[in-house]
Amino acid sequence: MRTSTLWIVAVFSVFFLLAGCGDEDADAEQNHDLGDNNAQQEDANQDDDDDPDGNNGGANNSEDADDDDEEDDESVDDDDGDDENSDDPPEEEEEGPWADLPPEPWNTQEAGPFEVAYRYEGFDYTPRAEDETREVGLSIWYPTFEDDGDHARYADWFHQPGVWQDAEPALRDPAPVLIFSHGNGGISTQSFFFTEYFASHGWIVISPDHTGNTFLDMEGGGINLESAVYRPQDLTQALDYVLQFPDDDPLSGYFSDKIAVSGHSFGGYTTLAIAGATFPVDELVAGCDSGEIDDAFCQIFSDQHMEVFRDGFLDPRIQAAIPQTPGGAAVMADGLDEIDIPVFMWTAAGDITLPNHEEGDPLWEGLAGEHDVRIDAEATGHFTFSNMCDLVGDFVGQVADDGCGEEFMEPEVIHPLINTYSHEYLRYHLLGEEDSGEWFSTDHTPLHENLNFSFK
Questions:
Q1: What is the pTM of this model?
Q2: Strand 158-165 to 451-455 pairing
Q3: What percent of the chain has pLDDT over 90?
């Protein structure tokens, strides 16, 4: 949220230059060999009373055997008749790749059993208090069984090996939905460690590119705080868009009403806004007039959009929220107690961009839900909660200084932890899996010593 964050623009430029030179067919595919557990048994029956002359016991024995066979046949026919008249339909055996899936629940500490598919498209809508149409790009991840074809193309710039472009969905029932909001100057695919993980576990994930606040829109740097009024609306409109897919769309009808939202940095603000945080507009305007609030935040509350903020951005379809290293305490901390859905907040103890004492701590203090949880991760920085460290951390010093240097947790360690705890939280509060609640009890031993839990 502070001006210093927007060097991310330069970071992404370097990232795409580097990624664009990579091998599109790098070996990064998920391996979901599940094995074949179907064993076959053979029964061998042998007559111990064979006639030495080869007559098998003579004619009389043969007639007796024929009589016995007829009785057995009648008995079998009677049994078959009973089965036909049974009220219980025979159980259908799974066929094809569905039969190869391991039994649920699947291990949340690793990628799920599905391959991951990806598609990108766009939609438009007219924001509140505006006349002009806003165009928004949308990334969609979903499960598939396909493990061949075209690799996904992220940001229309680089390929993602092991993720399949426009593949056929592997869906039989409506799937839980996760909406993701990228950070300031970021892109919808910036945290693919997170979005791809959920798709591998059978979720559908949607993530809009917040027009005017992506790296392509902000070549001059800085922070586009005016995006604060559009970002939550982008999420609601993205959800409206996918729920209205035509019948011939492969994903039509597969979006369930189990819907959660997550976002990183400015996306964390967006997450809290759509979850129901309110904005004390009159008090904020007074603070701007008196100079108590930074002028950078005051530009948000223009005469045109003041009533939009006063009404808020709550989307009642959202049932759980996971903000990651969020910002926005100056404008929403006093309105967080209006959120009445479970909130699981991640913060980074070493965050330089949005320090805990300015953002994470006051935001946590403002939350008041009985199921709210916070994990503050030591040895992590702001960009630990994205794929920036994997891609450009060794080349851009500013990124390394805020989450990617040797003093920070390695991505291959922290990312699975973020995925696992986020998934278990949603399994418990969104999907009703009672066993997942144990992960957030006071008796739980964290998977890593750097994870510090707080509860309301």
A1: 0.80
A2: unpaired
A3: 67
